Amino acid sequence: MRYKLTFVVGLALGYVLGTRAGRERYEQLKKSARQVAQNPAVRNTAETAAQQGRQYAGKAYHAVSDKVGDRVPDSVAQRVRSLRERNASGTGEDDWGTSNT
């Protein structure tokens, strides 16, 4: 789904940049995109997908944790703990200073 959305956005951007219709067509596309983004059905679907993603990530985390168990070296386990604590504190940035959103 993410790749399809990226493709559609790229296609739309290429169309806008390549078209001779100019600013008027750009404004028309921008208005349409805003209407789609503000549609309650689209917003609900996006939120549902996000919730499902979080659930699957949690299940995957527990499945991997159960399988790996104590086989992870202490240095790796400490690093994971420190990342969890840092993310729980709300910084939301990784080692490169970029957002994890």
Description:
With 101 residues, this protein is mainly alpha-helical. 76% of the residues lie in helices and 0% in strands. It contains four helices and no strands. It has helices spanning 2-18, 23-38, 40-68, 74-88. 0% of the residues are buried. The model has no long low-confidence stretch (mean pLDDT 79).
Sum this structure up briefly.
By secondary structure, this protein is mostly helical. It is built from 4 helices and no strands.
Low-confidence stretches: none
User: Number of DSSP strands?
Assistant: 0
Number of discrete helical segments? 4
**Class derived from helix and strand content:** mainly alpha
The level of helicity is over 70%
The major beta sheet can be summarized as: none
User: Can you give the mean pLDDT?
Assistant: 79
Report the radius of gyration as a whole number of Å.
Answer: 21 Å
What letter string, H or E per element, gives the SSE order? HHHH
- Please report which band the strand proportion falls in: under 5%, 5-15%, 15-25%, 25-35%, 35-45% or over 45%: under 5%
Instruction: State the end-to-end distance.
Output: 17 Å
In oligomeric terms, what are we looking at? single chain
What global shape is seen? elongated
SSE inventory with pairings:
Blueprint: H1 2-18, H2 23-38, H3 40-68, H4 74-88
Question: What distinguishing features does this structure have?
Answer:
about 100 residues, elongated
